[in-house]
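Dear colleague,

Thank you for sharing your sequence with our group. We've completed the structure prediction you requested, and as agreed, I am returning the results in plain text so they can be pasted directly into your records. Please verify that the sequence below matches your submission; if there's any discrepancy, let me know and we will rerun it promptly.
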Amino acid sequence: MLGNYSSTTEFYLLGFPGSQELHHVLFATFLFLYSVALMGNSVIIMIVCVDKRLQSPMYFFLSHLAVLEILTTSIVVPVMLWGLLLPGMQTISLTACVAQLFLYLALGTTEFSLMGVMAVDRYVAVCNPLRYNIIMNSCTCTWVVIVSWVFGFLLQIWPVYPTFQFTFCKPNMVNNFFCDRGQLLKLSCDDTLFTEFIFFLMAVFIIVGSLIPTIISYTYIISTILKIPLASGRRKAFSTCASHFTFVVIGYGTCFFLYVKPKQTQASEYNRVVSLMVAVVTPFFNPFIFTFRNDKVVEVLRDGVKHCCHLFRNQPCPRAAL
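Please find the predicted structure tokens below.
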């Protein structure tokens, strides 16, 4: 029970409008994007763990970022794909809805914390390279990652709890492909204005709070790079930051539009498009951003492909059965 007058035990996810044929096309498209996101981010985790050339703080943080991308997209996309195959509306239990919303927000908060940490790591690497190994030692990196995960999960307990304490007296149909908080608040007949304002302040604290060290770090990074006399030196220094900077622009851009707004109950079409960017498109592009724009990762992948081809080429042919 969600309140004195509410007996809601499940919700209906309206998903995407359109015909069944359109749903089949969307299913194939999103299944492809989801599969590539899983494989690409898994490859990043694997090569960081296996190859000694990537045993550095930057790639340690990158592997955790890849884990976050896999978890974030896996919380949303399988439910969305199942809904596209169903002929009618998709049902989701109250417990599953609470779990999905909490994990989605907690992982997103952890990711923002980690992006801020990665920006500071790039600042130390470019602006203070002689002390980089001392400052960003293994103990420091481990504790920073642990704090980011714990912070993300603890901070989202309170915002999720009051969302499901409202009285849901309207039809329990969520106009999205997952349990979107803004659409859930629309179902309540209570006054949610104050709660929405608190959610807005928390979104500002999380996103802007992690964006400030990112902006400060890149201000110093750009200033330092411009002082390098040789063009090759400037290009090499910037190449170590380009992939993270690209991811920051995409990640913060989409989430600013989705969460940093006083009115959480915004148009469902707007929320659906931006949610797709966060849950599907960004995890899909993450492996490409951090591989094709990083010379060392490209080198490791190229050597891995050569090694696999060498193994297959030298494998003896199986004897024919007598």
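Summary note from our side: The radius of gyration is 23 Å.

Kind regards,
the structure core
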